[in-house]
Amino acid sequence: MDVKILKEAGLTSGEVKVYLALLELGISTTGPVIEKSKIARSIIYQILNKLMEKGLVSVIIKEKTKYFQAAEPNKLLEYVEERKKQLEENKKQIEDMLPELLLKQKMAPKSEVSIYTGLKGVRTAHEHQYMKLKKGDVQYFLGIPAFQPEIQHTYWKQDHLKRIKHGIKAKFLFNKDTPKEIIKNRNSFKEVDARYMETNIKTPAMFLIYKDTVVITLQDKNPVAVEIINQDIADSFKSYFDEFWKQSKPLK
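^ thats the sequence. predicted structure below, dont judge the formating
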């Protein structure tokens, strides 16, 4: 059985083990549950109480002894629905708080340089542009490497839809060894002009330039992004981009 689904539904690893043990045991005291689930005796009641709060376990007392029983599996669907409702409510509350949170962030002193690691970190750095760029603004990418993990290709396609929704334009300069179909694909999206760099320089890093920000991204097995917020540095990188852009030609 793939218990990963139960964990993604909101159960902890311990809760999954105890619930499945009780499903097989039927009505049981904690002893057999501990033996079957391999859960430490010191935390068994804590886990059982959590499962009871979620409506997935019930308890009866016979002659001063507690017996536990797993709720029918259909209760898992009810639990997921309740959790979904709670998440929607939490989302609404956070949306209401956003203006206040953004104001606090705006008033706080900003770091000039931030480093982000992992795919999620790289994407966080990339998506900061949507806090600054407005409709009609342009994002500039310099030195996009030929190779990118497949999962990132999927992400970039999704990100283009977000960019289009915001009305942001894009100019891309790819390394010369990039397959032509990749550039054609990028040009198929609205408000994109993707071209080859007219140089044999190859680098695994690429540079995103917008407003006062430069994001240097390395997409390998340990992806990392360095975000630099400095108008002079951004202007310098933009000058490099403009020079390479003058030498480039629209893809035919």
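The two ends are 52 Å apart (CA to CA).
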